[in-house]
Design brief:
With 335 residues, this protein is of the alpha/beta class. The protein is 48% helix and 20% strand. Strands 1, 2, 3, 4, 5, 6, 7, 8 and 9 form a 9-stranded mixed β-sheet that branches. Helix 2 packs antiparallel against helix 10 and helix 4 packs across helix 13.
């Protein structure tokens, strides 16, 4: 009888093992973004991947370089659940939350630190929650950084120097409106086509962060870079809402902690590498690349040139929405 009972117990345990193994199987998390693997955002996402994979509860797969199409397609694919997360610039989420457009208005933040604090604060976190009705969960932000001008025709020190330049921008209405207000011809077009379009003079110039210009070798087809810092851009880690809701409280906390570590890692990378990237681009013996730093008066002239764009968005989004944003920026400085 004892032997018989022992066999029954052994059989029961054996039957339970596959179910237990299945429950412990790591959850696959498929993430797409548009940048190449040298870019600091991708390296931050690898940090995110490593943190989560190390827990044994997730198997994170990253698909860089627009393998799931441009940002607009990746966002829709994430909504449908064929992707679990996309990491896209905030400006691509304005259909889901129009007030997110405020983040990328020209010359709204006082500094990089001011922008980071504003996004980490109640206003920035509130924008992430506005994505939920669209079937997305905003895990958090990563930095894209301040955007700077470059072009192949002339040194730009004042807004008036922009007149007549053919500029590529992100396909973001606020960006296109601002540059056209300065008298240039601006057009939004895919980043994947940018190097070729600059090389063939479809565009005279472009505007991007230092790391994007460096890692994509845009300096090879440009002559001047003006450190204008005209727009601060950020990425949003947008997860499929059903995927997020399927996670346990413990798993959600692991995702949040992985994001915090990846964000801190990325910010440190940028601090370390931006100046080095500039120095390398200037030192290129095969191609002259001049970096122009604006004086205080020149910078103020650019800041003043953004006022019509601010007024346009104050009217479009409403004074209350706009003023709440400005208040959040002011309060972030006090922290």
């Amino acid at each position: 009888m004892k032997r018989f009972l022992s066999c029954l117990v052994f059989a029961a345990v054996a039957l339970m093992l596959p179910a237990h193994a299945s429950a412990a199987k790591p959850k696959v998390m498929k993430i797409a973004h548009m940048t190449n693997e040298a870019y600091h955002m991708h390296r931050a996402m690898v940090q995110f991947q490593n943190e989560l994979n190390a827990t044994g509860k997730f198997k994170v797969e990253i698909y860089p370089s627009a393998q799931f199409g441009p940002d607009t397609e990746a966002i829709e694919t994430t909504k449908s659940g064929d992707l679990d997360m996309t990491v896209s610039p905030s400006s691509y989420f304005t259909d889901e939350a129009p007030s997110i457009a405020l983040i990328e208005l020209p010359y709204v933040f006082n500094s990089r630190l001011n922008a980071i604090k504003t996004l980490d604060g109640p206003w920035g976190q509130g924008q992430l929650r506005k994505l939920e009705p669209a079937g997305l969960y905003g895990v958090g932000y990563l930095e894209n950084g301040h955007r700077h001008l470059s072009n192949s025709r002339r040194a730009v020190r004042l807004p008036s120097d922009m007149k007549g330049l053919k500029m590529r921008t992100m396909p973001v209405p606020a960006h296109v409106y601002y540059w056209n207000s300065l008298g240039c011809s601006a057009e939004g077009s895919p980043f994947s086509e940018l190097y070729t379009n600059l090389a063939t003079k479809v565009f005279d110039g472009q505007e991007n962060g230092i790391a994007h210009t460096y890692t994509s070798k845009l300096n090879e087809v440009q002559r001047y870079m003006t450190l204008s810092g005209h727009v601060y851009t950020t990425y949003i880690l947008a997860m499929n809402g059903d995927y997020w809701n399927s996670l346990t409280a413990e798993e959600k906390e692991l995702v949040n902690k992985a994001h915090e570590k990846a964000y801190a890692y990325q910010l440190a990378l940028i601090e370390k590498e931006d100046q080095a990237n500039l120095d390398e681009m200037k030192a290129n013996k095969n191609h002259t690349f001049e970096v122009i730093e604006l004086t205080a008066d020149e910078h103020k002239a650019f800041m003043d040139s953004a006022k019509p764009t601010h007024e346009k968005y104050r009217k479009e989004l409403g004074e209350a929405e706009f003023d709440a944003f400005l208040k959040a920026i002011s309060e972030a400085d006090a922290k």
